[in-house]
Structure formats: C-alpha cells, structure tokens
Automatic annotation (TrEMBL):
Residues 3-212 form the MacB-like periplasmic core domain. Signal peptide: none annotated. NCBIfam families: lolCE (TIGR02212). Pfam families: FtsX, MacB_PCD. Belongs to the ABC-4 integral membrane protein family. LolC/E subfamily. This is Liporeleasing system, transmembrane, LolC/E family protein. It is a multi-pass membrane protein. Keywords: Cell membrane, Membrane, Transmembrane, Transmembrane helix, Transport. Its main location: membrane. The keyword Ribonucleoprotein does not apply. It comes from Candidatus Neoehrlichia procyonis str. RAC413. GO terms for biological process: lipoprotein localization to outer membrane; lipoprotein transport. One of its GO terms (cellular component) is plasma membrane protein complex. InterPro entries: ABC3_permease_C, Lipoprotein-release_system, LolCE_TM, MacB_PCD.
Length: 383
C-alpha cells in the first residue's frame, strides 16, 4: 500500500510538472507571436512628413521583411446605442497583407474591401452588437475649436471585416482603418505616428536597430525594450512554478523511505543470511537502492503518460469541465487568450523524468544504508 502511494505521489508530481511547463511555454510562445505580430519587432517614432523615404531606406536592409507606417489614436466608437473606448490604427491595405498575424486572423469580410471601411476586433464587434456590413460611428476627441469650445470629430464607417487573433486585449480594443482616412480624421496631414519594422529573426533586433539608427534620426525601440519586462516576468514565473512543483515530487518521494524501511524490516532475516554467506554491505545497499529507483521509474513513466496526455488535450478537458460545472475556467478577460495554450517540449519531459528518478534514487539511499549496516549476528540470534 505504501509503495502504491509512493508511485502515485511521484506520478502526480511528474504529471503536474509536465502540464504546467507545457502551458507556460505555450502561453509565452503565443503571447510573443501575437504581440510581436501585431506591434512589430522594431518601432521607429517618425513624426516628420518624410516617413515614406524613411520606410524605403529601412526596406533596403536585408534582414527586414516588412516596413509598415502606422497612425494610432484613442477614440470612442458608437453603435446600437452602445459607446465603448477603442484604439484606431491607420494602415495601408497592402500592409495588412504584410502583417501576417492580422491578415490570417480575419474571420469575416475581406481585405479587398478595406479601403471602403474599417476592420474591427471580434470581441469589440460583439460588445457593440455589430457584424460585417453594419456601420459604426467613430468619435475623435481631437475636434474643431469653436467659440463654444472643442467639438469632437464624428465620422461613420462601414464594417468591412472582423479579426480574432485570440488575445482579448486586441480583439476587444483595436480598429483598423485605411491610413488615408485616419490622416484626415485625426489631422495628421502627411505624417504618421510611427513605423513598424518586421524582421526575419526577432532575436537579432538589437543588431538591426543599430543599422537603422545609422540611416534615420528618429527615436527607435525594439521589442525587448517595449515588451521585454513582460516576458522576463513570464520566465521568472515559469522558473518559480518549476521549483514549487519539484518540491511536490520531493515530498512524494519521501514515501519511498517508508516503503524501503518496511521492506527492510520484512526481509531482515534474508539480509542477515546473505551477509553471513558473504554478501557485502555495498551489495545489500545496491539492492535496496534499485528497489527505490524502480519505484521512481514506475511513477515517472505513469506520470509522463498522464502529463503528456493532459497537455495534448488540455482544451478538450477544459471544455468538458466547463460544460459540467456551467462556469468559465479560463476567462479571456483575465488571461488575455481565448484558449489555454500548450506547447509540449520533449526536452522538458526528459529533464523532468531525470529529475524525478534522481530524487527517488537519492531518497532511497538512507534506508538502504540502514539495511546494509544491520548486524546479521543480532538478527539471527533471536530467530
């Protein structure tokens, strides 16, 4: 019974480690892809009317895949007697195609009609109760000055598309409109707010930033400056979770001491006989260390199967429990994503397995030493 509890404890600890690390990896990867796909790898804060020449000079750099001028403003959006806050980004039609994360996430409508209206986030459209083909009113706080004060600019646009990238922050906030419309609505003239630069390799952003800096005289920031602190926090959280769950495995492995101690007590006569027949203390110790390690191996194998199965089907399991409990277990408002991301890495499985088996081996040493150093004379004298 104690042995079964030891195996079960290690299995649950290993399974929990695999699931949590898979979710943490998936969460970090999906956030990185979505955030960088929507915001660019390098941002050039170009507030002059020479943004086209600046963009063309950056395009000549080999490591650059896309250069996208953007306008950005906060607005109020109104429809069906509902008014919500939003962010309007002005962008060229061709640049939407170059912005792969956005282009691939359009779930209704078409980029072909982009010059005729605006594209809304799916959650924003849902909250406004609008759909493809409806009209929305955008209210800009940068309005006209009159003798009675400032009057907001109000303009009505047709909804020509909806996008859903799976991140609540973007799906519930962002509106994309043709840059020529936004330049008129927000009085940019022949200027933009900034230029987004996309690279072949995001990890080389610091090097490319220096190359761009030599070409332009504007302020530049790469994603490590803009989003780096957020991803470092995720990495720290992942490491802390790994440490905490490792302690669960350690606590579970302590049951091995009880299992081996009971086994030693049951087999003390056999141990004494083996010692009198010439078996060395090392031989006795090795036998019980192997027993403890086997408990760890069995628990680890079961835990790996449980953890891998859970990681690969985590959203199916979530949907099942939500249907049973009639509650939301993964609120996108809280977690920013519409589903639980999971990225199973075999290197994590191998590392966790080695850790669990190693802990089981170390925990098995004290009771094995006790068995090896029992006095066979005293044991057999009373039998």
């Amino acid at each position: 019974m104690v042995t079964m509890l030891s195996v079960l404890g290690i299995a649950l600890g290993v399974a929990a480690l695999i699931v949590v690390m898979s979710v943490m990896h998936g969460f970090s990867t999906q956030l990185l892809n979505s955030i960088l796909g929507m915001n660019g790898h390098i941002t050039v804060y170009c507030d002059g009317d020479d943004y086209r020449s600046v963009a063309n000079s950056i395009k000549n750099i080999e490591a650059v895949t896309a250069v996208i001028p953007i306008t950005e403003n906060q607005v109020m959006i109104q429809s069906n007697n509902k008014v919500l806050g939003a962010v309007v980004r002005g962008i060229d039609q061709q640049d939407i195609i170059n912005k792969k994360v956005l282009f691939n996430s359009i779930v209704d409508g078409s980029v072909d009609k982009f010059n005729q209206g605006v594209i809304l986030g799916a959650r924003l459209a849902e909250n406004l109760q609008v759909k493809y083909g409806d009209s929305v009113t955008i209210i800009s706080p940068d309005g006209f000055m009159t003798i009675l004060g400032s009057i907001p600019r109000v303009k009505t646009y047709k909804v020509v598309g909806l996008f859903d990238i799976g991140m609540y922050e973007y799906d519930n906030t962002f509106i994309y409109m043709p840059i020529k419309f936004s330049q008129i609505l927000f009085k940019y003239g022949n200027k933009v707010r900034y230029i987004e630069v996309f690279l072949k390799d995001v990890n080389k952003s610091s090097e490319i930033l220096k190359l761009i800096q030599n070409k332009v005289n504007y302020k530049l920031e790469d994603w490590k400056i803009q989003q780096g602190q957020y991803f470092r926090a995720l990495q720290i959280e992942s490491n802390v979770m790994f440490l905490i769950l490792t302690l669960i495995v350690v606590v579970a492995a302590f049951n091995i001491i009880s299992s081996i101690s009971i086994l030693v007590q049951d087999k003390k006569q056999a141990i004494a006989i083996m010692r009198t027949m010439g078996a060395s203390r090392w031989c006795i110790m090795r036998i019980f260390c192997i027993c403890g390690t086997l408990i760890g191996v069995v628990g680890t194998v079961i835990g790996c199967m449980m953890g891998i199965g859970f990681s690969l089907n985590i959203n199916r399991i979530r949907i099942f429990f939500e249907s049973v409990t009639h509650s939301s277990l993964f609120d996108p408002i809280v977690y920013f994503l519409s589903s639980i991301p999971s990225e199973l890495l075999m290197e994590d499985v191998v590392r966790i397995s080695a850790l669990a088996i190693g802990i089981a081996f170390i925990i098995a040493i004290p009771p094995s030493l006790k068995a090896a150093y029992q006095d066979p004379v005293n044991i057999l004298k009373y039998e």
